[in-house]
Design brief:
The chain is α+β, with helices and mostly antiparallel strands and 688 residues long. It contains 20 helices and 24 strands. The strands form seven sheets. It has a six-stranded mixed sheet, with helices on one face. 41% of the residues are buried.
Length: 688
Amino acid sequence: MDKRFTQYEELDLPKVAAEVLKQWEAEDTFGQSLELRKDAPPFVFYEGPPSANGLPGIHHVMARTIKDIFCRYQTQKGHRVDRKAGWDTHGLPIELGVEKELGITKEDIGKKISIEEYNAACRKAVMRYTDVWNDLTRRIGFWLDLEHPYVTYHTKYIESVWHLLKKLHDEDLLYKGYTIQPYSPAAGTGLSSHELNQPGTYKPVKDTTIVAQFKVKRDAASEFLFQDAFGDVFILAWTTTPWTLPSNCALTVGPKLEYVRVKTFNPYTHAPQTVVLAKARLNAYFNEKNKDAAFADYKQDGKNIPWTIDGEFYGHQLEGVRYEQLLPYAEPEGGGDAFKVIGGDFVTTEDGTGVVHTAPSFGADDQRVARQHNIGSLTLVDLRGRFKPEVTDFAGEYVKAEYYTAEELAAEAKKQGRDKYLSVDERIAIKLKTEGRAFKVEKYEHNYPHCWRTDKPVLYYPLDSWFVRVTAKKDRLIALNKTITWKPESTGTGRFGNWLENLQDWNLSRSRYWGIPLPIWRTADGDEELCIGSLKQLKEEIARAVKAGVMKADPYAAFVPGDMSDANYDRIDIHRPYVDDIVLVSPGGKPMRRETDLIDVWFDSGAMPYAQWHYPFENETTFKEKFPAAFIAEGVDQTRGWFYTLHAIATLTQDNVAYKTVVSNGLVLDKHGQKMSKRLGPMPCAGT
């Protein structure tokens, strides 16, 4: 037996592992593998940054094993494979964890606790489990430079991100828009489309749905609906979100679709009535065996309701017909000509009644068609997901029961005098039934989007947001993706490729506190704005503002532009609230204040190819040698996360791919077939 190798009488893997690790550390094997190949051709690998505010999970072991295999193989082939660790330190995971620890909500920040104190707590929490992560990394034999990691909250990292944002701004790829966006009341911020498409965000739910009856007003435009009518005339519209009905401002029909007028009885009040709906949807609401049955024989029991068609016409003939406001809690904001039938190209007869209840505040199509027809809007839900005081029957109540805690639900049920809480959707249904304004109420199972970090339902809400105009580069994004080697190939051509084909502009804004501030200063009227791309530029603009009397002094006087030492950069903090206090002066002499939003934390991680080297402010040669990556690897859940943001930023700022080859591994699932998550728990912790 060769004496160079240790002999073992029995297999004891933990003992062998401990001995190997001890030898690697004593001999600095990883360091030597790099030093011996310092002049060798590089094989570039990017490490996706995990968040160290939580313990590592078993799924991290699988992903890191895959990364390590490829990096070791390339090392053995003679390449130098640098492996720089990184930490993702901003965003919702940190904020929500801190809020839970402090026993506060987002609404308490700035009231019970200052922004400065809150962000200090976040900064303290972000690296809480770094030692556990580092220990796991060593124990599983994942060779990674843990001594010189990139950290997304460091000032140098943020400066590089600002440079990228300025580049986008200068090329008209960054803009502000007031649009309907997915919004998480539980997290207190808007979400991007790729966040809404993380695995598991769409969950099956059973909602109360209502076919509401909108009473038509009799005038010249609607006279043809009233000729020989049976009782009052109503237009039927279906909704899976009854909580939006108080905000209804219009009814949208398909101009070329066929509609019918039907004489029948209301199934709840049994009052005679004439209703209007799409001809193609008749069978969904009317039993064929009761067609043309004797009206005199109806027993007013909601069963075997007779009906008869009494007129046919096209949708465009309904346009301009006016109706009574369904739930008259408030008048539409900003004027406009509300409560009438309008035409829209998005109306179908696949479900519902062929008439779309249109609430411009809570739907992108609704807002678009309302603007086209000068319809006002009614935003009767606040940013926490509660009805505003104007909705007197439900004021202050959450529009989704899931926003309540179990204790709060019990208290609400007690207020209602019930053993079980009835949601606002259910009580709106009861109200409309009683008032003869409901045609059909039932439970409906469908998939509904949830916030990827809170698991609470999202709302579609009108927000002032900053967007990255990725759609302007859609063709280039698709073309460059075809040059990337995907393993498995189906992920790149299918999941990722389909995502790019249906691309939407990237909602960059986040209404939070701990994250990279959006570096845009604007005048109050929005006519002038400035995007800051470096601390040198910021210092120059502050000097102009001080000279103009807009600011008293430079709060970053200790910072020396051009000094790239860590000590110099550690002298200042450009997070909130400090950066919020900076007021600049516009070319026209007006004060400019920073747009208060932060940026999407996914932009932080997608910027790592540049920001890890503080590019372009230093390490330019290093960056050019290490861009793009030859190889990256993460779980398939990163397809519309890190993989996408890397690709989008590289395409828009470098006209290049960020990575040439990607391995997308599967996920570790729990006993229910769901992705394991340390956030949801319980799950095996790999760090123990």
